Request: fold
Amino acid sequence: MLVATALVMFMTPGLAFFYGGLVGRKNVLAIMFQSYISLGVTTVLWFAFGYSLCFSGTLGHGDLAGIVGNLDMAFFKGVDLASPSPMNPGVPLIVFVAYQMMFAIITPALITGAFANRVRFPAYLLFLVSWLVLVYFPLVHMVWGGGILADWGVKDFAGGIVVHTSAGFAALASVLYVGKRAVDDKGMHSLPLVALGTAILWFGWYGFNAGSEFGVDRITALAFLNTDIAASFAGPTWLLLDWIFTRKPKFLGFLTGAVAGLATITPCAGYVSPQSAVIIGVLASAACYLAVNVKNRAGLDDALDVFGVHGVGGFLGTILLGVFGTAAMSLPGRDPALLASGLVDGTASLLFKQAATAVGTAVYAFLFTLGMLWLINKVTRVRVTKKEESEGLDLGEHGETAYI
Reply:
């Protein structure tokens, strides 16, 4: 589990390289810094009260209406060497705290690709803190911390709801609030950096998904295999679509498709068969490819396609869990609460719950993000000026450059 924790941590620098390669040369450090700073700021919040708000109390037993926890474990009170983790008594609580912290670190960093080149660093710091407190921490409690959605029977193996849907629809809100870039940007300056970032993300995703079983058993192996299958089918699917519509087999298309497959399989990884993971990977690329093209035609400046890949992917995967989830992919004697029986098992109730939760999460993240940005703009200007954007955020915001 410590290795899985380290893998998830490594995804945040991987995301920084992925995004860094996709922007122009004068904004590389700024976008990378927005990922790296979460390693520090989120850890501070997690220690102070974040973990407690996520995992203290359950529905009707000490939390706030099943939406957010309490402060009983603020500053890691009660997190000692003797305490077992809530998911697996054989693993110490301190490991669970660290593992979940890595999810908290990367989730807001995903959003930054949407408003690349346009947001001031002080405003981003306020956004990072506010979004974690008002969106991420409540969602974790509701889905994974014994809150209202967990009690209802909603499933999310590794973060399709909590991570990708929430970040993706927050990204859409950010794009609408911040607006288009005022200065023409050539975009991707280094495809090799994007490839490196994709490799790190893909590698780390094994800890993200397989580690979410929080133990070593057959479900761990299933989640690992499904993660690779979905990405490996999604990448070529996007490549094929690019080849058909642009007449060129594009490396960037393959990389983007692989990430879409990874995001989409995340909520399903430990609940579906490998055969279903194939279908999920193909559908992930098709849906996300369509979403990106619709976004482009609509003129929305989601610079690095956070909504089209993570938002649509997480949303789709959450719903597909209600279709392909099956009790056949489980261990004998497994707690029924850990099973996911969807349409393939002849059960429609899970599909309804997953779809309703996906829609609710999208609306929740979208509206709270819009409100947050509006309030932050009252405190400090959110958007850079046209002059600052023209100069580039590396020099304008940080006084540094990536290249001589």
Remarks:
- The two ends are 41 Å apart (CA to CA).
- The chain has one domain: 2-398.
- The CA atoms of residues 86 and 93 lie 7 Å apart.
